[in-house]
Design a protein that fits this description.
- This protein is an alpha+beta fold.
- It has two domains: 135 residues, N-terminal domain of MutM-like DNA repair proteins, CATH 3.20.190.10; 124 residues, Helicase, Ruva Protein, domain 3, CATH 1.10.8.
- The protein is 24% helix and 21% strand.
- The strands form three sheets. It has a four-stranded antiparallel β-sheet, covered by helices on one side.
- Strand 9 and strand 10 form a beta hairpin.
- Helix 1 packs parallel to helix 7, helix 4 packs across helix 7 and helix 6 packs across helix 7.
- The protein binds zinc ion.
- Zinc ion binds next to loops.
Length: 286
């Protein structure tokens, strides 16, 4: 599933496409996307006549900011889900299989949302409404924001018995981190993914926050991680998969100590750790 670096790479590729012409019409396939109350009411008709302003991102969500004919600001929220992607096409280019939304612009270009598994979602709203609704209204800080540090992590999760891996997946604690970058950050911080949050000392929280920033920044610099489906709006895959420390490398030697990496299971979504560098402490807090 695309996480912050992948979604941000898509955003940057959309900025490069310079879509600025008015949206003339909206085409929608007959298939439902992502279930859930807030995703079923898409209201894509709001986009008709709207002019693009800019692409933004919050956590794992893309936001297209637009202005309607009355001058009011609108937003299109896009969640890529598992296999969703955005494509910029010219009029007459055939639609890819599994295209679910097509926005037709005044310059004869089209923005298409393609999603084979349909776990992605789209919705249009007045801009202020979009920000006030789930899921955006309760997102925690971006990992590269100044407000994200060890003290923030400790304040948000330090009293909890939840496993550290699950703390990092909680979008209210930090926005945009999913399983790949959570597992990578825990390795960089030399912390066991199953360690209960309440066991960490302030210096370990600071180390973990720094590790999250480091792996996210590296993922961004590499244009995201492509394990299966992810490509940006220009069709480019990411390059970060070759730089991963542990994710997807179970059985292979640790890049630091050479110990064979091992899978761990947690709530049905596993990951990988180094049993030497990320030993689970007994008794004492770290
Ligand atoms: Zn190791």
């Amino acid at each position: 599933m695309p996480e912050l670096p992948e979604v941000e790479s898509v955003r940057r590729s959309l900025v490069r496409a310079r879509l600025s012409a008015e949206i003339r019409s909206v085409w929608r396939s007959e298939h439902a996307l992502r279930t859930g109350t807030h995703w079923q009411d898409e209201r894509l008709g709001l986009l008709r006549g709207a002019t693009p302003l800019r692409w933004q991102r919050r956590g794992k969500h893309l936001l297209w900011r637009l202005r309607d004919r009355e001058g009011d600001e609108l937003g299109l929220l896009v969640h890529l889900g598992m296999t969703g992607r955005l494509e910029v096409a010219h009029r007459g280019e055939p639609r890819a299989t599994h295209t679910h939304v097509e926005l037709r612009l005044g310059d004869d270009r089209r923005l298409r949302f393609v999603d084979a598994r349909r776990f992605g979602g789209v919705r249009a709203r007045p801009w202020a409404t979009l920000l006030a609704e789930p899921p955006l209204h309760e997102l925690g800080p971006e990992p590269l924001d100044r407000s994200f540090d060890g003290a923030h992590l400790q304040a948000a999760a330090g009293a909890s018995q939840r496993a550290l891996r699950d703390v990092l997946l909680d979008q209210r604690v930090v926005a945009g981190v999913g399983n790949i970058y959570a597992v990578e950050a825990l390795f960089v911080a030399r912390l066991h993914p199953l360690l209960p949050a309440a066991r960490l000392r302030p210096e370990a929280w600071a180390r973990l926050a720094a590790a999250v920033r480091e792996v996210i920044a590296q993922g961004l610099a590499n244009g995201g991680t492509t394990l299966r489906d992810y490509v940006d709006a220009e069709g480019n895959a990411g390059r970060n998969q070759g730089a991963l420390w542990v994710y997807g490398r179970a059985g292979e030697p640790c890049r630091v100590c050479g110990t064979p990496l091992r899978r761990f299971e947690l709530g049905g979504r596993g990951g990988v750790l180094c049993p030497h560098d990320q030993a689970k402490p007994r008794g004492r807090a770290r």
